[in-house]
Amino acid sequence: MEVLIIGGSGQIGQELCRLLESHQISFRAPARHELDIEDHRNVARLIEKWQPDVVVNTAGYRAAGKAQKEPSRCFSYNRDAVSNLADTCHKVGAALVQISSWRVFDGSKVDAYTEKDTPNPEGVLGNSFWQGEQQIHQRCPRHIILRLSWIISHLGRNRATKLLDNFSYPEAERALQTHINHRGCPTTAEDVARVLLAITQQIGCNTECWGTYHYSAAEPTDEFTLAEVIFAEASQFQDIPNERLHEDESEKAINACLDGRNLRNTFGIMPRPWRSAVARLVRNYFEEP
Ligand SMILES: NC(=O)c1ccc[n+]([C@@H]2O[C@H](COP(=O)([O-])OP(=O)(O)OC[C@H]3O[C@@H](n4cnc5c(N)ncnc54)[C@H](OP(=O)(O)O)[C@@H]3O)[C@@H](O)[C@H]2O)c1
After folding, report:
1. Distance, CA 154 to ligand 1 centroid (Å)?
2. Which numbered atom of ligand 1 lies nearest the CA of 159?
């Protein structure tokens, strides 16, 4: 089996490359200058040349605030590039595994979202993910769309590193505002890579379970509790004044929790708790240069 990873230098991509290597699964992870998803002709040319069995696309636009200011860029990534990928994968007979997001929902549901819930995205980013998903449905029947909740990692920019960066610069004395009514399932990039590996292996075994799935780590939480847990771990490495962390209830409630039961029942992939992974994440953050 030959796997093509797009976005191999990202938070999820790096972890996936590491796992595929340790499982001795043959893969390519071209850098952006070699394969730019916005360059449709080159993407099609390279995929036709390389003939992968599975294409995993982890490259995507993910900054919600910025997306409102540059919608065409966001749609170019999450809809147009994805629709080109779907066409190309279908043409060469490759399966497409595409990362999507809880943002296809409006976040107003009380319980975790299931695949049966109707998307109702708010804002440019959510709409771009949802339109990208629809393009895949229309163009490439052999696909897996994997919707994720909050991604955390010791690498890159995410909820965990934003907090840790702030703790690490005590001169930034302002309090850290975290929203107690924003709920999600913090899922490490490493855990997402484990899920992508399991899906890829099953595609390699000719499992025909195409469609959209949700994955998120076990134990939904809120932004404030996540910050407290990270805070407690980080205090082993650095002195952090307690008063830095503040709960903010002023914003409207948002639920980013996803129900992964369908993935568990179909692929046998069990969710892992995020709390135990945070200790390692924080240690890696402080110990890896
Ligand atoms: N973070 C979250 O909370 C969250 C939640 C749900 C879903 N997601 C989605 O999950 C996916 C992966 O997230 P991530 O956190 O791993 O992202 P990331 O760390 O930002 O990595 C993105 C990767 O895509 C590459 N890339 C960017 N533009 C490209 C282009 N034009 N052509 C080819 N490659 C390009 C980047 O390469 P460079 O290194 O060259 O920039 C990088 O390797 C994204 O689609 C994101 O929207 C994220």
Report:
1. 15
2. 3
39: in domain: yes
Q: For the segment 231-277, what is each residue's pLDDT rounded down to a tens digit? A: 899 989 887 766 667 777 777 899 999 999 999 999 999 999 999 99
Concatenate the DSSP letters of all residues of 152-176 into one string: E-SSSSSHHHHHHHHHH-TT--S-E
CATH number at residue 77: 3.40.50.720
Domain span including residue 107: 2-155+188-217+259-264
14 lines ligand 1 (CB under 6 A): no
Q: Which two three-digit tokens encode residue 234?
A: 């980080």
Give domain status of residue 124, yes or no: yes
